[in-house]
């Protein structure tokens, strides 16, 4: 099952996404929560905390500076840009790429 939450800014997308992800994980479903926002805050909603949420954003930005290598596989993306959240959710920050060839 794939679920996308989209809409206008400030309407509660992050809160709904975090609540839904944790609920589904508590029922035993495997959940990978992708934070595709330019200001990734889903980690806070999932209970990862602001420090780990910021760390993931920094790792993701490392693609633009060439400090982090592109990952050619889904598993590589989940491992490199993700962290474990409460209730068995895996959070992955996958915001847009500004520099497709960082050198």
Write a compact overview of the structure shown.
With 103 residues, the protein is an alpha+beta fold. Helices cover 41% and strands 13% of the residues.
Kindly list the characteristics that best describe this protein:
4 helices; three-stranded mixed β-sheet; 103 residues; single chain; 41% helix; 3 strands; alpha+beta
Count the DSSP helices. Answer: 4
Percent in helix: 40-55%
Share in β-strands: 5-15%
Biggest sheet, open or closed, and with what strands and sense?
3 strands, mixed
> What gap, in angstroms, lies between the N and C termini?
37 Å
Strand order of the largest sheet: 1-3-2
Cα Rg:
14 Å
Summed over residues and divided by their number, the pLDDT gives a mean of 90
Shape: globular
Question: Spans with pLDDT under 50 lasting ≥5 residues?
Answer: none
Report the order of strands and helices: HEHHHEE
Question: What is the tally of beta strands?
Answer: 3
Give the domain tally.
1
Please identify the structural class as seen in this structure.
alpha+beta
